[in-house]
Amino acid sequence: xxTSDPVQLMKQEVGKAAAAKVKSDTVVGLGTGSTTAFAIxxxxxxxxxGEIKNIVGIPTSFQAEVLAKKYGIPLTTLDAxxxxxxxxxxxxxxxxxxxxxxxxxxxxxxxxxVDALAEQFIVVVDEGKMVEKLGSTFLLxxxxxxxxxAPVMRSLEKLGGKPELRMGIRKAGPVxxxxxxxxxxxxxxxxxxxxELEKTINNLPGVLENGLFVGVADVILVGKVIDGQVVIEEF
Length: 235
Ligand code: 5RP
Prior knowledge:
This protein has helices at 6-19, 34-48, 62-70, 108-117, 149-158, 194-202; strands at 26-30, 55-59, 84-89, 93-94, 100-101, 118-126, 140-144, 161-165, 182-188, 207-210, 212-213, 219-226, 229-234. By secondary structure, the chain is α/β, with parallel strands linked by helices.
């Protein structure tokens, strides 16, 4: 892809940097979103060039599955393998403790399964995703089974949140996840204790998973533009 858009360039280069970390003979968790899409493309390129071999991917979404097939990455399932060596995934916010908000693509439930299982979970973001405190720029996604939307919304309000049902773009009605559920996006004035909030929300009956990823990420790769050049920082 040729682009001069700095955000796209950061996504592209950080995706490439993550793909470079994939080794032969490994099981690779394939994340969801526009940044991970570049990583999937470059893993496919490395496989095709013979730089790495014997890779199998575990997709975190229908999008990841489609991209893996497009770029020639063989796929497997969690029934067929007992471990994941490395997972690469994007995020909507990253705090200084490597805690994340994910779910911008409504894929956080399967993403958490795969990313948490991986021996090494690498997060790929552009610098716009870095925040001092989670919840500052992005609403917290919560996947809910359809019949429980109203009570879960009331419970989220009692927890101090402002919930809204995520609506489709170029599709009438709400967003339906790959599992056939709905997503409530919640604005919290301040997320002071992400670990506690993650558990509290997941304890509400009808909630499948929320987008707080606490203590899951191992490495954060951040694409930055410095003096007109994209550089990748790792922490
Ligand atoms: C999908 C996600 C994505 O990883 C997150 O939204 C980041 O996406 P992008 O790289 O397109 O900004 O959590 O559920």
